[in-house]
Write a structure and sequence with these properties.
- By secondary structure, this protein is α/β, with parallel strands linked by helices.
- Helix content is about 40%, strand content about 20%.
- It has 24 helices and 19 strands.
- The strands form five sheets. It has a six-stranded parallel β-sheet, with helices on both faces. Strands 7-10-11-12-13-14 form a six-stranded parallel β-sheet. A three-stranded antiparallel β-sheet has the order 17-18-19, with helices on one face.
- α9 runs parallel beside α10 and α17 crosses α19.
- It is globular and about 80 Å long.
- It binds iron/sulfur cluster.
- The site of iron/sulfur cluster has 8 residues, from α8.
Length: about 525
């Protein structure tokens, strides 16, 4: 064994994107004593890599200990990789920690494959595991809560170099005061512990110095404490208005001041709505008032913020109909994206404990996805999955948020019915649903809209909508860095801005078509447009 032991801290990420940042590994490395920390490598892998490939790569270095961060999505790969490593080198100390170990220790205890399992917070327990001998029987260590005031920062300590990653995950707090029945976080903590603002200010300075462009804020209740949230947002607006931040927020807690401060940043907000049905939400311990919620979302809209929602189908009390209503409610709030998930019965959650009472059964897979039950049959789940795929393609990937509601209102169709009709249209036109992921939504959106306006005997309304879509596509391309774009419009852009206020039918009545090519361009960071004569 090397002295100090040579260690690898391994993260198997979902995929290689700006979210693939090994924060847990960096935090663990930072918390180790200096010598141990120096002799510790952070190793990144991805779900698409086979365990044999991961094990082969790790075996290239003579490690004394290898620790894995385990989540629900990588638990199987962690086990299989550990098996291969242990077989090749029985003297290697293998450790697993992370949320899945805390929630499902039995899965990792099988066959005494791991020498150590660390439940709960790992920073103070890891040193003991690394410095030990291989164990005959798996030893389970219960990681104590860390002291948030004194815990070493993964960034300021130099444990991780942000230059090697496209984005940074930034943890501001641990714990959550809410009690959502589907969430593991609700069980273990119950209260929030925050890192000191002085530490966060230093970390932010470092991000600016290093030229970090994308930061994902990890804080389940970012806007829970108004005073703290205001102070933090003011700091970001002052110091880093150029960095793109993604926040998870509770919409019910949004205030005018928060919305205004978010508006000073380059920010995206993700909101866990889950369902718009108050009865379903009550079973999740999340009181929900649809009208009040809408008012809060208006505050975000008024500040031109980019926001998206998460929805879950298959929740207790949920039916296919209530899921469609949730989808309709959500889509009329015009989010930039909607992420829809089938309920995953996470081990250790209240829903898992009460599964029998609620009649929820999972499929036995690692994701523990809910399967059919009375009120939400297998066929219903399939239909919900289908709608999810269509919404993802047409709405989110198709960047339809600006005009989708206007189109549905003019067609007098609910958003969910519109999407279902899109699915039927794809079939009738021989599109293979398997190919959707590789297709560009824009031409299909236009063809389908043309079909819809003709089918609903409202052909004359398609002309202004088409110009509206082309206009926004042009603006998007300019925002994404194109210097100039020429668009052929049937209405001048200034009048098109009226369209979502007065609706398509009124617009078509009051504004006659004036076909013209327009040039959209940027000058000194401002966007301009002019007719081409
Ligand atoms: S879902 Fe979010 S708000 Fe609810 S308990 Fe989990 S972390 Fe907290």
């Amino acid at each position: 064994m090397n002295n100090p032991p040579k260690t690898a801290l391994v993260t198997i990420h979902v995929e290689a994107n700006s979210l693939a940042f090994p924060l847990a590994a960096a935090q663990l490395k930072a918390a180790l004593p200096k010598g141990l920390s120096k002799n510790t490598d952070i190793k990144d892998f991805y779900l698409a890599q086979k365990p044999s490939v991961i094990a082969e790569e790790l075996a290239k270095t003579e490690y004394d200990a290898i620790g894995f961060s385990s989540y629900i999505w990588n638990a199987r790969q962690v086990r299989e990789t550990a098996e291969l490593l242990k077989k090749a080198n029985p003297k290697l100390i293998i450790i697993a920690g992370g949320p899945h170990v805390s929630a499902m220790p039995d899965f990792f205890l099988k066959d005494d494959l791991f020498d150590f399992l660390i439940k709960n917070e790992g920073e103070y327990a890891l040193e003991k595991a690394i410095g030990s001998e291989p164990q005959e029987k798996t030893v389970v260590l219960d990681g104590p809560r860390v002291n948030m005031e004194t815990l070493a920062s993964p960034f300021l300590s130099g444990a991780i170099n942000t230059d090697n990653y496209d984005g940074v995950l930034w943890e501001l707090s641990r714990g959550c005061p809410y009690n959502c029945a589907f969430c593991y976080e609700a069980r273990n903590h119950g209260f929030v512990r925050r890192f000191p603002m002085s530490r966060l200010a230093e970390e932010l300075k470092l991000f600016i110095k290093k030229g970090v462009r994308e930061v994902w804020i990890l804080d389940s209740t970012f806007n829970h404490d108004e005073k703290w949230c205001t102070a933090f947002l003011e700091m970001l607006a002052e110091e880093a208005p150029h960095i793109h931040f993604t926040f998870e927020i509770r919409a019910e807690r949004v205030t005018e001041q928060q919305a205004r401060l978010f508006g000073k940043l380059v920010a995206s907000l993700q909101i866990g709505l889950q369902s718009s049905n108050p009865e379903v939400m009550a079973r999740l311990n999340r009181p929900f008032k649809p009208q009040n919620y809408k008012k809060k979302i208006r505050l975000l809209e008024q500040n031109y913020l980019v926001y998206g929602f998460d929805l879950i189908y298959g929740l207790p009390g949920d039916t296919l109909e209530s899921f469609k209503e949730s989808l309709d409610y959500t889509l009329t709030l015009s989010p930039s994206n909607i992420d829809i998930f089938r309920l995953s019965l996470l081990p250790g959650t209240e829903l898992d404990d009460r599964a029998e009472e609620f009649g929820i059964v999972h499929d036995g897979s690692y994701e523990r996805l809910v399967v059919g039950r009375p009120g939400f049959t297998d066929e219903d789940l399939e239909e919900a999955e289908d709608l999810t795929e269509l919404c993802d393609f047409f709405y989110t990937k198709g960047l339809a948020s600006i005009w989708f509601k206007t189109a549905c209102d003019a067609l007098e169709l609910t958003p969910s019915f519109f999407l279902e009709r899109f699915g039927i249209w794809l079939e009738q036109n021989d599109f293979d649903r398997e190919d959707l992921a590789d297709l560009d939504p824009a031409p299909l959106q236009k063809e389908f809209l043309e079909f819809c306006f003709s089918w609903r005997n409202k052909k004359e309304l398609y002309l202004p909508l088409e110009s509206y879509i082309l206009w926004h596509e042009g603006l998007n391309m300019i925002m994404e860095g194109e210097e100039e774009r020429i668009v052929e419009l049937n209405y001048d852009p200034d009048s098109l801005t009226q369209l979502d206020v007065i609706g398509l039918a009124n617009f078509a009545t009051y504004f006659p078509p004036t076909p013209q090519n327009w040039r959209i361009f940027t000058e000194e960071n401002n966007v301009y447009w002019e007719p081409i004569v």
